[in-house]
Amino acid sequence: MAIKILSVDDEVDLELLLTQYFRRKIRKGEYEFFFAHNGLEALQVLLQHPDIDIILSDINMPEMDGLTMLTKINEMRNPALKCIMVSAYGDMDNIRHAMNNGAFDFATKPIDLDDLQVTIDKAIEQITYIRSAQKEHKQLVDIQGDLSVAREIQKAILPRNFTLKMPDEGGVEISASMNAAKDVGGDFYDFFKIDDERFAFTIADVSGKGVPAAIFMAVSRTLIKATGMQGVPSAECMCKANDMLSGESVDNMFVTVFYGVYNAKTGVIDFTNAGHNPPYVLHNDGSVEALPVAGNIVLGAFEGLPFTSGSITLQPGETLYMFTDGVTEAENMNHEQFGEAYLKSSLEQLKGASPKDIIADIEQKVKAFAGEAPQSDDVTQLVIKRK
After folding, report:
1. Please, are residues 318 and 282 in contact by the beta-carbon 8 Å criterion?
2. What is the mean pLDDT of the chain?
3. How far apart are alpha carbons 376 and 334 in whole angstroms?
4. Of 61, 263, 296, 362, which is the most exposed, with the fewest CB atoms less than 10 Å away?
């Protein structure tokens, strides 16, 4: 695209001089010249051609001088528009005033056109750099906007209504939260009814962060739910989901998962832990017990692997607390981690608490522990209490 140059000077001869000297660049489409004879005319030209790149302006002109025009141009706040001021050699006070008020450079009369060419080349270099930076900034703003929308979409696909209607004798309280470290996260939780007696639940943590993790998170959640809705045992659900995810995994991404099927009448939970942090059971006597560490591998790494399941019975009043490693690996300014021991001792102080209160308490403790340190990982919790 041609560099557009506006010459502002009350000397008519300058128009002929410029068009003659730069005729080759004009002919090649490298330069396009516009002309005005004072500041007022120049502002009118700028209104008609807001994409002008360089203004070559005399200082001493009738109606509106170059310094006044420069002030008006500054009000446009266009950093890519460069002003080169022209005046007599002895008019250094005005030239200095122009430079102090944002002029890019200056030239003295009579104009040395070879020197002017060098000055214009410098201005073009600055304009190119600024416009490139403006383009990158716009792209970043667009990306940030897209990420904000993605964040809202991600929140929307996770359950926000924690009411789950089950038989009267099998009622449960459920609560969950997911706080992403970036605009979008790789953690997720889910729960859904299978039939009138059973519902499934899961908490998971995708490797990596940001947009790739968020996409893999959405795929993982969909595959696990679609398989779990068939009512298959937890180990079979993990086997099928693993085979499908392994076939779709990119850049060796994987996901740790704790998946369970809860029988509302008996309180029995059939669960499979695929490389995830073992949950805790909060017993009625105030003690807290971690489930055994499973020997299963994460989902998405290798196809055709078997998964072993376990089983527990949640007694009335007992609570199953599930979390991702963003809780225990939260760091403070000294790079100390929140840790399993602190989490367990915190849960021991929450005897009889509701799932909602448990989540709020742990979130507050994690934030207080981290202090001013930035959140390094997604923090997700899922809590189920048998009434």
Report:
1. yes
2. 89
3. 14
4. 263
For the full predicted model, state whether its pTM sits above 0.85.
no
Residue 322: alpha-carbon gap to chain centroid:
26
Question: In sequence order, what are the beta bridge partners of 242?
Answer: none
Question: What residue type is 329 in one-letter code?
Answer: E
Can you list the positions of beta strands (E) in the chain? Answer: 3-8, 31-36, 54-58, 82-88, 105-109, 172-179, 187-193, 198-206, 255-263, 268-274, 280-282, 288-290, 310-313, 319-323, 379-386
Position 387, amino acid: K
Region 169-192: what's the mean pLDDT?
Answer: 84
pLDDT for position 66: 87
**293-332 pLDDT, tens digit each:** 888 999 998 999 999 999 999 999 999 999 999 999 999 9
As a whole number of angstroms, the distance between CA 184 and CA 190 comes to 17
- Among 92, 94, 32, 51, residue whose Cα is nearest residue 69: 94
CA–CA separation, 237 and 298 (whole Å): 13
As a whole-number percent, the residues of the chain with pLDDT over 70 amount to 93
Q: What is residue 21's three-state secondary structure?
A: helix
Please state, in angstroms and rounded to a whole number, the distance separating the CA atoms of residues 279 and 273: 9
Phi, psi of 316 (to 5 degrees): -55, 130
Q: What is the DSSP string of 299-352?
A: BTS-TT-----EEEE--TT-EEEEE-HHHHT-B-TT--B--HHHHHHHHHT-TT
Eight-class DSSP state of 275: B
Mean pLDDT calculated for residue range 272-296: 94
Strand order in the sheet with 379-386: 172-179, 379-386, 319-323, 280-282, 288-290
Instruction: Tell me if 206 sits within 8 A of 378, measured CB to CB.
Output: no
Contact assessment for residue 297 and residue 305, using Cβ atoms and an 8 Å cutoff: yes
What mean pLDDT comes out for the span 87-99? 83
Residue 60: pLDDT band by 50, 70, 90 thresholds?
A: confident
CA distances in angstroms from 134 to 52, 77, 124, 250, listed in the order given: 16, 13, 15, 33
Give every strand in the sheet of 54-58, ordered side by side.
Answer: 31-36, 3-8, 54-58, 82-88, 105-109
pLDDT of res. 153: 65
| Burial class (CB within 10 angstroms; exposed 0-12, middle 13-18, buried 19+) of 380 | buried
